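Budget justification aside, the reviewers requested a transparent look at the raw inputs and outputs of the sequence design task funded under Objective 1. We therefore reproduce one unedited record. The lines immediately below are the structure tokens for a 237-residue chain.
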């Protein structure tokens, strides 16, 4: 087994436990996309082009509410803003890659792929060290990203198929909150994270009745802002 292939398979193996939660998430998206009036082909294309579960779920809700396109774009931008932080965190480990590989990995950068990859990178020496040189470093990320991408496309397709037979009276929206709670809670490991989550949750409840899901934007911005302030204060102490 070559070093590159080994890193690739290790990335897949690291991602497999997370897929247990990703698969039902993708199926729920497919069901809700059809319920929102999105055509099956468009719903599947969104999974391939956007490839961001939380943003896709929000978009289905906004489409269902006939939200203006500008508000949709702004909402998705805010929801996915965390990916800029992921990119900044990954950049030191992948800075020597060629542009093609950087573009490919940028496309595959998701919450789940980032989580397992950054943990792996933090356990090995910095780029240029002998134990995991730059020529192999990206293959772990590629394995994790492709494992997630494949499962997301298949689970979305399964959800679209089920959406054609599941009665509209079966309101599945509540399962989205359960899914996100399961993803978020295990990662709340310091005061800044707890404060950000609490603030975002409180604002989301108070601003629930704002039109076009604008409460979501307010909750995300205030949650991130408060979390950063708490973290900065902790660093200066």
């Amino acid at each position: 087994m070559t070093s590159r292939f080994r890193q690739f398979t290790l990335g897949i193996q690291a991602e497999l436990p997370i897929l247990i939660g990703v698969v039902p998430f993708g199926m729920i998206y497919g069901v809700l996309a059809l319920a929102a009036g999105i055509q099956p082909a468009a719903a599947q294309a969104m999974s391939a082009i956007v490839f961001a579960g939380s943003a896709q779920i929000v978009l289905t809700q906004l489409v269902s509410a006939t939200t203006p396109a500008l508000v949709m774009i702004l909402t998705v931008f805010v929801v996915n803003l965390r990916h800029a932080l992921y990119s900044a965190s990954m950049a030191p480990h992948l800075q020597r890659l060629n542009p093609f590989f950087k573009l490919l990995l940028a496309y595959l950068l998701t919450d789940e792929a980032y989580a397992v990859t950054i943990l792996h990178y933090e356990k090995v020496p910095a780029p240029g060290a002998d134990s995991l040189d730059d020529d192999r470093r990206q293959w772990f990320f590629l394995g994790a990203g492709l494992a997630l991408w494949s499962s997301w496309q298949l689970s979305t397709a399964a959800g679209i198929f089920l959406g054609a037979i599941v009665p509209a009276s079966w309101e599945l929206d509540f399962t989205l909150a359960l899914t996100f709670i399961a993803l978020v809670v295990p990662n709340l490991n310091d005061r800044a994270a707890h404060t950000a989550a609490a603030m975002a949750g409180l604002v989301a409840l108070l601003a629930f009745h704002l039109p076009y899901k604008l409460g979501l934007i307010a909750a995300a911005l205030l949650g991130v802002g408060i979390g950063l302030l708490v973290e900065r204060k902790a660093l200066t102490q």
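The two ends are 49 Å apart (CA to CA). The CA atoms of residues 59 and 72 lie 7 Å apart. Computational costs for records of this kind are itemized in the attached budget.
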